Amino acid sequence: MASTVSESGGVKVITQVLQATDPRAAQLMPCPSPTTSYPGSILVKDFRKAQPKALGSIQIVAGITQISFGIALTIAEASNPALTVTSGVYFWIGFLLTVSGSLLVETEKRDSASMVQACCIISTLVIVASLVAAIIYGVEISQNVPWCPVRGNVSGNKRWCQSPTLTGPNHGVNTVFILLCLLEMSTAIAALVYGCKAIRGENYTRMVL
Fold first, then answer.
1. Measured between alpha carbons, how far is residue 112 from residues 14, 107, 117, 147, 182 in Å?
2. pTM of the model as a whole
């Protein structure tokens, strides 16, 4: 330890230089404030402006709805399944939405930058999957109901297959699921936009620091 003494205006100033290994040097070091913000916490804070808990809850409910209808329709159309049943769209879109929604809800509880990045990746998958699912539902609307041929090749069978009484419920269900896909896509786009903004802001903060 080195000491220097200087006097100015009748005031004596003693300066001591401590080595880094000196225990007293650690006591003089300023402690970080518990409110100090780090890039990871800033990223999550920016991402939470999108209300990920609300978006995640919507996706979880939509995913459970898709899976529930998928189970019911798979059982009902076991003998002659429709395009939506054979493609398994109810199950893979439902599973993807449940996982995505769970991640979004979890970001409300944890300050994890990697979780925000994972939400951006899976939100991109949800957008693509919702678009594909909407196309599948739309294609099925243009087709006859799958169980219609079970009636046999009787006179007027074609007109019966295309009657509003038969096609109405089938087209109505698929139309509802198309609207549900648009809702799922909207929530995923919102999560992706806010996630990308948060990641871009974190990269800028790191450059400044």
1. 47, 7, 9, 50, 29
2. 0.68
